[in-house]
Amino acid sequence: MELKKVEAQLEAILFTIGEAIELERLAQAVEHDEDTTKKILQNMMDRYVDESRGIQIIELDGSYQMCTKPSLYESIIKITKIPKKHILTEVLLETLSIIAYKQPVTKLQIEGIRGVKADHAVNKLVEYNLVCEVGRMDAPGRPILFGTTEEFLRCFGLQSLDSLPAINPEKVEDFKIEAEEEVEQLTLDI
Fold first, then answer.
1. CA-CA to 133 of 20 to 30 Å: which in 44, 124, 157, 190?
2. Domain boundary residue, one of 45, 73, 101
3. Are residues 64 and 94 in the same domain?
4. How far apart (Å, rounded) are the C-alpha atoms in residues 130 and 127?
5. Is there a contact between 103 and 134 (Cβ–Cβ < 8 Å)?
6. What is the CATH number of the domain that holds 41?
7. What is the pTM of this model?
8. DSSP helix, strand, coil percent of the chain (3-state; round to 5)
9. Is 10 exposed, middle or buried (0-12, 13-18, 19+ CB in 10 A)?
10. What's the rounded Cα separation, in Å, for the pair 134 and 148?
C-alpha cells in the first residue's frame, strides 16, 4: 500500500509541475531516500512504456518529467492547433552540434569553427529554446557563453549530455580536409 501511495504522489507532482524536477526534490517530497525514489520512478517509467499509454516519464540529467509520448504529438496538434515543431535546417543543426559538444561556447568560437557568421543560427536556436545563455566569458567584452537546454535533451531523447554520441576522430579529420578543399575552391573562384 505504501508503494502505491508514493507512486501516486510522484505522479501527481510530475503531472502538476509539468517541468523536470530534480531527484533530490522528489525524494524529499515523498520522504524517501534518493535511491529508493529513483527505483520507484524507474518502475513507473517501465510501466508507462506500454503502447496503450499516452504519457511517459523521462529522465533529463538527473531530473524527471512527465510528458506526452512524441508519437502522439500529431493528435495533440489537431486539438490545440499548435504549430508543428520548428524545422532545424542544416545550418541550425550544425550550429547546435557545435554548441552541444563545445559548450559553454561563444558566438565567436562557433564562427571560428563554422567559418561564417553565427548570429542568425544562434538566435533561432535560442528562440526554439534549444540553447540559452549560460554565463559570460571572463575576457575583454565579456562575451556571452551558450549551452544547451533541457528542451534540447527532450527533443533529441537524451538523458544527459553524456548520452551524446562520441565523435569519431577519423570523421573529424575528413571534415577538416573537406572544409580546407572548399576554402581553396572558393579562393580559386574569386
1. 157
2. 73
3. no
4. 8
5. yes
6. 1.10.10.10
7. 0.58
8. 60, 15, 30
9. buried
10. 9
